[in-house]
């Protein structure tokens, strides 16, 4: 198939990934290309050039509008909208069999555009007012919508999930996250260093439990880092930096437990699956899709309870490492994910 992939523009679609959405889009482009599809990635111009890249804007917008993503900045909105509108015009004229929309923009959901190109839209965030109405009004046989978990889908449609909406769990290549038989007794946390990701809770729980902890990931909110995270580093609690996939897999794999501390309704939690593939059980907060993803491979507690999380660390350490690995192989592989994507494309195209 000729497939257009439309990306979110906050960060480049290139490793080392700023977050799960960037990793999702990159692996989608790489996986579909490896399966013989003709893929064009519509993303910021500083994204990975190993793909056929059609720049939506010259560089990712966090470079030009730092910190403005959630502030309703009119200049950023106009900049992004202009890029998406022009890109969607090129997609409409490009003879694509299907568009996989990962943009979080309302523009691909306009009826006139959906009538031009069969579309699969993947939702990657909880519902919010700027997008909710457009998503709900866009349902049609040739427009399939995916949520990353059952919990995520219920967040968007609390009364009844429509038949045009499918749950599409994220998937990883298990070979890229090698299993290790044993850990070194330490804890590890990975993600964007931002308040909604809750690394300060991981630090507090690790100190209570008496475990060394290493944090990995990009520092997205410098003020939060400076006030609430950095002062608590030192001794067995350290920051390990921001690494690409192979280096991060090595760092995660040597630990004994993964801490997952979402303070928002995390739609999936890709980092947990990556850690589980390495054999790490999970201790974390039961919010969003966490229970659905972690299952028998961890111990989850109420959000914000550092004492309970410290206790959960001990419970998670008792889980054999082959349990989380087996759960990933059963439910969250890239092959299964890509199979589901191809089936959704075929349905949208046929309609």
Automatic annotation (TrEMBL):
<dbReference type="GO" id="GO:0016757">
    <property type="term" value="F:glycosyltransferase activity"/>
</dbReference>
<keyword id="KW-0808">Transferase</keyword>
<protein>
    <submittedName>
        <fullName>Glycosyltransferase involved in cell wall bisynthesis</fullName>
    </submittedName>
</protein>
<feature type="domain" description="Glycosyltransferase subfamily 4-like N-terminal">
    <location>
        <begin position="19"/>
        <end position="175"/>
    </location>
</feature>
<dbReference type="InterPro" id="IPR028098">
    <property type="entry name" value="Glyco_trans_4-like_N"/>
</dbReference>
<dbReference type="Pfam" id="PF13692">
    <property type="entry name" value="Glyco_trans_1_4"/>
</dbReference>
<dbReference type="Pfam" id="PF13439">
    <property type="entry name" value="Glyco_transf_4"/>
</dbReference>
